[in-house]
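Deliverable D5.2: sample structural annotation.
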Amino acid sequence: PGMLPKDKGLLALAELRHSKWFSAMATNLPSCVESMRIMRDKAQREPAWASLGAWALELLVERALFSAGMNLSPSKALMRILEVVASGLLLDDGTGMKDPCEREETC
């Protein structure tokens, strides 16, 4: 009777893990926060980007900038993010992204 639904609790825990991960990883990357703001705005304006979801977008930005191997200016960071998307990462038969906060595969 007084218990919270399990699925809502699991979602809240996942959000907490995502927040901690973003604070630990993305805030230390130059231009990551700025690029994330631009990509969030893009997602609000264009339905194709909105379908990606907030967490997937954050993960895409962080992984793209981390894999660059060097510090990038905000303009170069956006170019890098779009290069990663253009590589086919998000296609049905693409390599996709693994959630670093989860042990098991998630859809």
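Annotation notes: The radius of gyration is 15 Å. The mean pLDDT is 85.
The annotation will be released with the project's public dataset once the embargo ends.
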